[in-house]
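Task: sequence design from structure.
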């Protein structure tokens, strides 16, 4: 069974930076493409960024392009989301997820395993 544990959320002022981490355990890390999603109160869970199993292909939502970077470390079985130039509209619970069927998916239903979520709050 795959387990995902996120860390790194918190409160930051607009324009600031945060780095989220997600550690995978229970299965071979390289078998999974990884994604970061976020969900604000009253809204659907949306893709933020995704990375394929080898790390050489990534996807970013338009709203975060140029500000967020997704990366993975096979030695640490960890995927990261580096967030810079944060805006109040980035406030949400951020979830990491793993999938092994599509390879680089933007779709919630393609992901088989989810972390518990970490709160990111950006104050204006």
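Answer:
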């Amino acid at each position: 069974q795959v387990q995902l544990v996120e860390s790194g959320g918190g409160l930051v002022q607009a324009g600031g930076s945060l780095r989220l981490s997600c550690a995978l355990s229970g299965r071979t890390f390289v078998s999974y493409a990884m994604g970061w999603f976020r969900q604000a109160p009253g809204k659907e869970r949306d893709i933020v960024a995704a990375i394929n199993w080898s790390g050489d292909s990534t996807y970013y939502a338009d709203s975060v392009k140029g500000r967020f970077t997704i990366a993975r470390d096979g030695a640490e079985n960890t995927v990261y989301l580096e967030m810079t130039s944060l805006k109040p509209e980035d406030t949400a619970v951020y979830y990491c997820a793993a999938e092994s069927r599509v390879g680089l998916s933007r779709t919630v239903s393609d992901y088989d395993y989810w972390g518990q979520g970490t709160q990111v709050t950006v104050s204006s």
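The chain has a mean pLDDT of 95.
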